[in-house]
Write a structure and sequence with these properties.
Structural class of chain A: mainly alpha
Distance between the termini of chain A: 50 Å
Number of helices of chain A: 8
Oligomer: homotrimer
Largest interface: A-C, 31 and 30 residues
């Protein structure tokens, strides 16, 4: 019953997750560039780089031609996210640290974790490959955007960012292995990633450094 | 008639464009490293990285083994560009900002845009894929060299750099679609990219930032 | 006779070299992150990034699915290196510059040069491809770790780092071409790389800069 509703809503879970992730991450990447006072061109490039870097890396790892090169729909979704960030940047002063941006980032993280887990499962990878590809799909874009902005990638400082992707992709594998439909696995994965990420931000979860030991 | 002359001159447009691009970008990459006061080894590595990063990325995106790994001719062309940059660096103080370097960079940009557009067309990509692969081939090397030098890639600040590659690759597709020979499309693409790039440098074209709005 | 002993010890030279390289480079990458005062999570990510980046790049260049995504053994070896670095970091103050780390780095360099040369030879590349892939396998991890830590990759400043990999991979091709068993070629390659690297560190070998000329 729940399965039927979800399957109706998410006819193609990959397409749904990929669409959400592209818009969300283009929005977040552009917000980072706005904070660095880039012009419209630089904002667009960083937004598209954040939206596409994770998925292109995923496609290279499963040795297929990147989706983003085969369809103009993907870049249109990316440009939509860029446009939203510019609109928000005109209205607010600090788009990168605005709660909307933090929530969009968590949603993008969860969507791309799910998209990566679906692709890896379809390509026949074992559990470790599913988790690795889901995580790379989710964190690759943000890491690449930070490298372009000449920062050390924030995923190295945020203990519960890549960790949330690992949890989500593990949940995807676990639920799928127990015979649930792909749409149920996709919803479980997304929920696990987004809930742990927002909880980590809200409660400021951290892990110790070696000097604490 | 024009077609016949161009075809005679450019028997294999890809080989011509790839050769010019490798020498030009190795020269520019090495000039960047000279400005940062690297030694001969570092200059060579940055020069080769700038010459090869775009083309290797292009080959990975169309899922074929990179050309640069299959033929020693490619690295010899790269080393020629490195040698020219060292010679210029000994003669002049600031090779990175010398007009020769700026022109070489525009020529490399145009050549690699064309080389990428040819590979993508041959591989059967739609127009969006041709433009994306031409642009990545053209700007990938410079962006990677800047990341190695721990700078934010200058393509993010130069509005009319990646844009020139987009224009050139679009022209390649447009001319080719209307039935012109590959050599005519290649010349059109190169001319569009190099002319817009040199005009942008000469007249200091820029786009607005969000704060201007 | 020597060949028989080596083949017995190194039944599968690739597996031996890959195992040593993964532990050594995870150890070195984690030591870099400890010096930058990252927490346990960041230390783990940088260690795994250094261990896997070279081999994944190698696998992409020969267009096969990365090994690291197909087997959990690889990540377990990486985590072992991370654990050793944390243990050493608790005991000593400066794990990155400790002699143990410098020796581990030279061993990782030699092991991954050999692993890359074996893969390229098996995939049928000519001598130039063997040297390029061996070198990229060896230096890719360290360069990527430095980029993550927002440093300019140290391979650009160390004249005898990538050079040692080039020497080792050339030796692999030379010995293999003269009909020696793979295990003999592997030992020759590793020895050439590790000896030249440790000699370069001990005697502080450098090359001139353009300003010296």
């Amino acid at each position: 019953m729940v399965e039927n509703v979800l399957t109706a809503l998410f006819g193609d879970p990959f397409a749904v997750m990929n669409t959400i992730g592209l818009v969300a991450f283009a929005f977040v990447g552009s917000s980072k560039a706005i904070r660095e006072e880039f012009d419209v061109f630089g904002i667009t490039i960083v937004g598209l780089a954040m939206a596409f870097a994770g998925g292109v890396t995923r496609d290279l790892l499963v040795t297929r031609v990147p989706l983003a090169l085969q369809s103009p729909i993907e870049i249109i979704l990316g440009l939509l996210g860029v446009g939203l960030a510019i609109a928000l940047g005109v209205v607010f002063n600090a788009p990168e640290t605005h709660p909307i941006t933090i929530v969009a980032d968590a949603i993008g993280l969860a969507s791309f974790t799910t998209a990566g887990a679906i692709v890896a499962t379809t390509a026949g990878f074992p559990v470790f490959g599913i988790v690795a590809i889901g995580t790379i799909n989710a964190v690759g874009g943000g890491a690449f955007a930070d490298i372009l902005l000449d920062r050390s990638p924030f995923i190295l400082f945020e203990d519960f960012y890549a960790t949330c992707a690992v949890l989500g992709a593990s949940a995807y594998w676990f639920v799928g292995t127990f015979g649930a439909a792909g749409s149920v696995a996709a919803v479980t994965c997304s929920a696990a990633a987004v809930v742990t990420r927002l909880a980590a931000v809200s409660y400021d979860w951290t892990l110790p450094t070696v000097n604490d030991m």
